[in-house]
Design goal:
Elements: H1 6-29, H2 39-43, E1 57-60, E2 64-67, E3 70-71, H3 72-78, H4 90-99, H5 105-117, H6 123-131, H7 138-148, H8 154-160, H9 168-195, H10 209-217, H11 222-234, H12 243-252, H13 258-269, H14 277-292, H15 299-311, H16 329-341, H17 346-365, H18 376-385, H19 394-415, H20 428-435
Antiparallel strand pairs: 1-2, 2-3
Helix pairs in contact: 4-19, 5-9, 6-7, 6-9, 7-9, 7-13, 8-9, 9-10, 9-19, 10-11, 11-16, 11-19, 12-13, 12-19, 13-19, 14-18, 15-17, 16-18
This protein binds carboxymethyldethia coenzyme *A.
Length: 438
């Protein structure tokens, strides 16, 4: 097939190679054991069970995330940037995740332009958003808006027309590109609708994807644009087992189109143990400051408040992780950003002081496997610093970024011909019987 689209052309070549290798190995060595599953893993949310393919990133418990082999500090260095900006363009990360090669500046610029060309929002999406009560959580508005775009799905239309299996990835790619192009506009629309009486800001198509998003939100200044580029890069992917990624994969495996799969993923991201933790962290910090009557609490005061939170049977939001066993490199990248760009901020100082206090307390509980901060522990304080202080919107920002990883992975799942996902469940009675005499 002769593709004009350079990303699609490269993807077609790479995925064909891998698909051929995977198919041949499956035929020859399909029964080879890869892993074993313990009783604890079955009860405990399948932690560590190796059971799905995810090309775009890999998570090491100690080292943290690598996107196609590159760590976050490496990507901050190596991905294309806009002009003199020090932060990477998320466009570059998407290219990297899709084809496993760092893009040139021209290739990243090509993606920025592509997403401008694909940004057109169907009229009815606005009506769908406007029909929801204004106090509907922004994530619900976001998910509903994404669902409503399903009507324009290329995959769904071509499937109905009898598309061959070999074309599934192509239609998935078209939907993914259109959806990614539109998400910042949808998200900014929801933001301005809820918090600024519907005073919307027209896009500036001379800007890149993240810069234009920052512009449409209405937060001024180049530093905020830089933050958005970094934010949208580091939140994009965290291998396949996390709830939003896995949801995309699971729903997509039924051949639901990317709109349906991604909307479902956003419903998973909206849970407080996952993406909603970014709003919970900042709410918790302000609640603590209110309770203590200071915006500058001491370590001792923070320790007391942490103990009160735990005693109430609550978790400390922004701490812990299902896989990580060290401070999250995404937390570290945001801390570095704050150190480089922001001279003094009360709320950021509190986040850093919480970081000095919480790990020891969580360790002392003896049950928390990872006492360190995750990505959500820092993001809110940076956003507050730049004036984005509508906490309930934070998970939408996470969602816009997450589209890059999970949709590029969905393209891979379709290209590799991965089947309907259908693991085996067991009853508790059966499970208990397996270990009874051991
Ligand atoms: N505060 C208090 N207790 C915590 C804790 C925290 N931050 N993190 C874990 N624990 C507790 C668990 O609730 C569990 O307690 P029980 O045995 O009484 O149920 C125990 O420690 C063991 O949990 P774990 O194996 O260490 O952690 P899990 O893999 O089960 O859960 C996570 C991981 C992220 C859900 C958990 O650490 C948590 O609830 N953290 C706070 C919420 C949060 O920050 N989520 C965001 C994660 C990143 C993201 O997806 O965006």
């Amino acid at each position: 097939m002769n593709y004009v689209d350079p990303l699609k052309k490269k993807f077609a070549e790479k995925s064909e190679q891998l698909r051929t290798e995977l198919r041949a190995t499956l035929k020859e060595k399909g029964n080879t054991k890869i892993d074993e599953v313990s009783f604890a893993q079955v009860v405990g949310g399948m932690r560590g069970v190796k059971s799905m393919i995810w090309e775009t990133s890999q998570l090491d418990p100690v080292e943290g995330i690598r996107f196609r082999g590159y760590s976050i500090p490496e990507l901050r260095e190596l991905l294309p940037k806009r002009g003199d900006d020090k932060e990477p363009l998320p466009e570059g990360l998407f290219w990297l995740m899709m084809v496993g090669e760092l893009p040139t500046d021209e290739q990243a610029k090509w993606l920025s332009d592509q997403w401008v060309q694909r940004v057109n929002l169907p009229e009815h999406i606005i009506k769908v958003i406007e029909a929801l009560p204004i106090d509907t959580h922004p994530m619900t508005q976001f998910s509903a808006a994404i669902m409503s775009m399903q009507q324009s799905s290329v995959f769904a239309r071509r499937y109905n027309e009898g598309m061959s299996k070999s074309e599934y990835w192509d239609a998935t790619y078209e939907d993914s590109m259109n959806l990614i192009a539109r998400l910042p506009r949808v998200a900014a629309y929801i933001y301005r609708r809820i918090y600024f009486k519907g005073e919307h800001i027209a896009p500036d198509f001379s800007l890149d994807w993240g810069g234009n998003f920052a512009h449409m939100l209405g937060i001024k200044g180049d530093d905020f644009k830089s933050l958005m580029r970094l934010y949208l890069t580091i939140h994009a992917d965290h291998e396949g087992g996390n709830a939003s990624a896995h949801t995309t994969h699971l729903v997509g495996s039924t051949l639901s189109d990317p709109y349906l799969a991604f909307s479902a993923a956003m419903n998973a991201l909206a849970g407080p143990l996952h993406g909603l933790a970014n709003q919970e962290v900042i709410k918790w910090i302000y609640k603590m400051c209110d309770a203590l009557g200071t915006s500058n609490p001491s370590k001792e005061q923070i320790a007391d408040y942490v103990n009160t939170t735990l005693a109430a049977g609550l978790v400390i939001p922004g701490y812990g992780h299902a896989v990580l066993r060290q401070p999250d490199p995404r937390f570290v990248a945001q801390k570095k950003f704050a150190e480089e760009y922001i001279s003094d901020s009360d709320v950021i100082n509190v986040v850093w002081r919480v970081y000095e206090v919480v790990p020891d307390i969580l360790k002392s509980l003896g049950k928390v496997k990872n006492p360190w901060p995750n990505v959500d522990a820092h993001s809110g304080a940076l956003l507050v610093h730049y004036g984005l202080n509508q906490f309930s919107f934070y998970t939408v920002l996470f969602g816009v970024s997450r589209a890059l990883g999970v949709l590029s992975s969905l393209c891979w799942s379709r290209a590799l011909g991965l089947p309907l996902e259908r693991p085996k469940s067991v009853t508790t009675e059966w499970l208990l019987a397996q270990v009874k005499d051991q």
